[in-house]
Write a structure and sequence with these properties.
With 333 residues, the chain is α+β, with helices and mostly antiparallel strands. It has two domains: 5-151, 60s Ribosomal Protein L30, Chain: A, CATH 3.30.1330; 160-314, Phosphoribosyl-aminoimidazole Synthetase, Chain A, domain 2 (Alpha-Beta Complex). 30% of the residues lie in helices and 25% in strands. The chain contains nine helices and twelve strands. A six-stranded mixed sheet has the order 1-2-3-6-4-5, covered by helices on one side. A six-stranded mixed sheet has the order 8-10-7-11-9-12. Strand 2 and strand 3 form a beta hairpin. Helix 2 (68-85) packs parallel to helix 3 (105-122). The longest helix is centred in the N-terminal third of the chain and has 18 residues, at 68-85.
Length: 333
């Protein structure tokens, strides 16, 4: 009897199960397969990375309240963020739209205005796609990025599986604002300017390649939540991680506006689309001196001692305050 996916361990357990049903990719140029932010294939002197993501009405946004230009922007941003997490630069994107009956042309034009705005600013122009009829609106984007190995001493993509005990854990940017923005939206309140990152996140397109060039080998973007995404690194790398709450880079406005909520939002809110990475201390110092983006040490990587839990959050007193739910699971009910 097949076990319903709701009774398993969520999205990543299902991915592993489905991947196990596929024949291993027999590609001599395949560098990274299923299980990371992108897959990667060598193409002469280039390493190309591939990713895809989908936004669905009622799951990732609400058509009753969404700004259509913001939706177009975000549909591209979440894919560019995956490319940044590999340390690559964007090449192009493909956009597939599922459109319900009666959906207006004005809304479609607004979505594409948002798409054009972000690709004009950050790269990855749209070069194709598809349009289909659907019960609910969805936007599915496939994006391609590349690393020119001739231009760097560190050409290999940053991977979730490359963390090692002794690494420091770093963040390139601040966290918590997106989750806070979503709280304001759900409450029907005006979203403060500092929380607009939820509607128009700016992925770390410069930070990703810069971290890789500095020698960082392990990274992921914050989409599901800090604890959840760090757990993905720990799972793939077979390590454990400790995060110091007091070290988290949280916007001052968030601390003042939501003093009782910032901890939860920073640890589990997700969708900040900043880069979470691990590396040796000397590499962190080198990256810190060269990147324009502010880097923050938030913890350390250690040997994994337990199969049950691999991420621990501690407060200023050293007490364990790890949240029971680490962040977003696309298949949770």
């Amino acid at each position: 009897m097949t076990t319903p996916h709701s009774q398993r361990q969520g999205e990543f357990a299902l991915i592993d199960e489905l991947a196990a049903r596929l024949k291993p990719a027999n590609l001599s140029d395949l560098i990274v397969g299923i299980g990371d932010d992108c897959s990667a294939i060598r193409r002469g002197p280039f390493i190309d990375v591939y990713t895809t993501d989908t936004l669905v009405d009622g799951v990732h946004f609400l058509s009753e309240t969404v700004d259509w230009e913001d939706l177009g922007w975000k549909s591209i941003a979440v894919n560019l963020s995956d490319i940044a997490a590999m340390g690559a630069k964007p090449l192009h994107t493909l956009v597939t739209l599922g459109i319900p009956a009666g959906f207006s042309a004005n809304r479609l034009n607004s979505i594409y205005t948002g798409i054009d705005a972000i690709t004009s600013k950050l790269g990855g122009p749209v070069t194709g796609g598809d349009i289909v009829r659907a019960e609910k609106l969805f936007i599915s984007v496939a994006a391609v990025g590349t690393i020119d190995t001739r231009l760097t001493e560190h050409p290999h993509p940053m991977l979730r599986s490359s963390a090692i005990p002794g690494d420091v854990i770093g963040l390139a940017g601040s966290i918590g604002a997106s989750g806070a923005g979503l709280e304001f939206i759900k409450g029907g309140k005006p979203v403060p300017e500092w929380a607009q990152v939820h509607n128009r996140p700016i992925p770390g397109m410069d930070a990703g390649p810069a971290l890789r060039n500095a020698g960082v080998r392990c990274a992921i973007d914050i989409s599901d939540g800090l604890v959840a995404d760090l757990a993905h690194i720990c799972e793939r790398s077979n390590v454990a991680a400790t995060v110091e709450l007091e070290s988290l880079p949280v916007p001052a406005e968030l601390l003042l506006t939501l003093p009782d909520e910032w901890q939860r939002l920073a640890l589990t809110g997700g969708e900040d689309y900043v880069l979470l990475f691990t590396c040796p201390e000397d590499v962190f110092s080198s990256a810190e001196s060269t990147l324009e983006t502010t880097l923050t040490r938030i913890g350390w990587v250690s040997e994994r001692a337990s199969a049950e839990r691999n991420v621990t959050v501690v407060d200023a007193a050293g007490d364990d305050i790890t949240p029971a739910q680490g962040g977003w699971d696309h298949l949770s009910e």
